[in-house]
Amino acid sequence: METKSLTDVVGVKDVCRNKHLWRMLLAEFIGTLLLVFIGCGSCISWGGNQPAASGWDKPSIVQIALCFGIAVATIAQALGHVSGAHLNPAVSIGLGAVGANVAF
After folding, report:
1. Which domain holds residue 77?
2. What is the pLDDT of residues 74-89, one digit of tens each?
3. How does this chain sit within the bilayer (predicted)?
4. How far are the Cα atoms of 10, 26, 63, 68 from residue 19, in angstroms, in the given order?
5. Is-contact 28 92, C-beta < 8 A?
6. Does residue 50 fall inside a structural domain?
7. Number of structural domains found in the chain
8. Radius of gyration (Cα) for the chain, nearest Å?
9. Within a domain: residue 73?
């Protein structure tokens, strides 16, 4: 019986040499970064410490929800063909742990 090293069993060589996997991980990282940046940016009040005369500087719940929804749809459309468009690191890690490859 052939003795295998720990790196053969765990699959470290497969992860290190698979350029497609790194491309998918980079796309997921960029997608998640954009979603958090754009979505959380939609919650910011731009009025500063000055009192608002008409209240236009404070985003409503509808505006925030639309911003998140449009951001998710746009990022999924742009990066979905590369990585599967999970846009959630927990989902990406979970699917990677079970060996699912949904990008194809």
Report:
1. 13-42+57-98
2. 999 999 888 888 888 8
3. Multi-pass membrane protein
4. 18, 11, 39, 31
5. yes
6. no
7. 1
8. 20
9. yes
Residue 8 domain flag: no
Quickly count: other Cβ atoms within 10 Å of residue 79's Cβ: 21
Cα(22)–Cα(39) distance, integer angstroms: 25
Give the separation between CA 62 and CA 55, rounded to whole angstroms.
15
| Residue 1, in any domain of the structure | no
Question: What is the DSSP secondary-structure string of the chain?
Answer: -PPPPHHHHHTHHHHHH-HHHHHHHHHHHHHHHHHHHHHHHTT--TTTTSPPSSSTTSPPHHHHHHHHHHHHHHHHHHHHHHH-----HHHHHHHHHHT-----
- The letter for the amino acid at 58 is K
Over residues 2-32, the pLDDT tens digits come to 666 666 666 666 667 777 878 888 899 999 9
pTM for the whole thing?
0.71
CB atoms within 10 A of CB 83: 23
